[in-house]
Amino acid sequence: MLKFLVLICSMLMIGGCTSEEKQSSASTGASGESGMLEDVIVGEVEPELGVYENEDCSHWVGDTPCNMVLKDQNDEYWELYSHKGQPIIIDFSVMWCGPCQRAADEAEEIYSDYKSYDIEYVTVLVEDTSGDEPDLDDILIWVDDHGVQETTVLQGLQDVVDYSGIEGYPLGAWPTFVFINRDMEVHWGMWGWNEDTVRAYIDEII
Fold first, then answer.
1. Which of 60, 121, 187, 189 could disulfide-pair with 3, CB 3.0 to 4.6 Å?
2. Measured between alpha carbons, how far is 37 from 78 in angstroms, rounded to an integer?
3. Where are the alpha helices (DSSP H) in 57-135?
4. Per residue in 84-126, pLDDT tens?
5. Are 103 and 142 in contact (CB under 8 A)?
6. The pTM is what?
7. Is the pLDDT of residue 51 over 70?
8. Rg (CA), the chain
């Protein structure tokens, strides 16, 4: 509860879109055992997409986030745990949100400025312009519209959102940024978009 209060009090509501601005329905994603991607794939079976929650992970500050497997703009699997040892910036966004679009316009420049620190900058698109889960075509439109070249854009699922912070991320506005340090611990989170603040938190985890 203390982590919840501290995080909520400190998250920034600068130019963010709230969930009330666009209603959407939840969908089903991964659950159950966590592990590296090689532990999820069995032979020719494709892994279930989503967050792999268990009792040893949560998404609050200081905790180890649960593993997450999603598809990127190249239609390839991206796994959170495969990036342990890197500073990770996750931008949870929706396509219809103006502040999310402004964040996307700056993502490549931010990545370029911190590339030498081996950061992983990821945008997880949770909804398309209609409030539905995005498909690959939506992701490619986003990539083209915002000049994405080196950063990663993922086809998000609506069940990555969980206000308890256990089965998913406690997203309170769009965009929500999550900063994960090299030890695979949640360093901090931020609601809304402010470039200076994003850069300040990246400075803390590199």
1. 60
2. 9
3. 98-114
4. 999 999 999 999 999 999 999 999 999 999 999 999 999 999 9
5. no
6. 0.84
7. yes
8. 16
Contact in structure between 53 and 34 (CB atoms under 8 Å) = yes
| Tokens coding 22 | 């666009």
Q: State which H helix or E strand residue 92 sits in.
A: strand 88-94
Best CA proximity match to 70, nearest among 90, 54, 48, 88: 48
What three-state secondary structure class fits 91? strand
Closest to 52 measured CA to CA, from 77, 78, 83, 30: 30
CA distance readout (Å), 11 to 3, 14, 16: 12, 9, 11
Question: Which pLDDT belongs to residue 72?
Answer: 98
Per-residue CA distances from 9 to 5, 28, 172 (Å) = 6, 30, 12
pLDDT tens column, 164-185: 787 889 898 999 999 999 999 9
C-alpha torsion sign, points 109, 139, 126, 41: negative
Contacts of 87 (CB under 8 A, 6+ apart): 114, 117, 118, 119, 120, 179, 180, 181, 182, 202, 205, 206
Q: b vs e for 25-37, b when ≥16 Cβ sit within 10 Å of the residue's Cβ?
A: eeeebbbeebeee
Tokens of residue 195, six digits: 């470039």
Amino acid at 45: V
Distance between first and last Cα of the chain: 28
- Amino acid sitting at position 122: V
Confidence of residue 149 (pLDDT cuts 50, 70, 90): very high
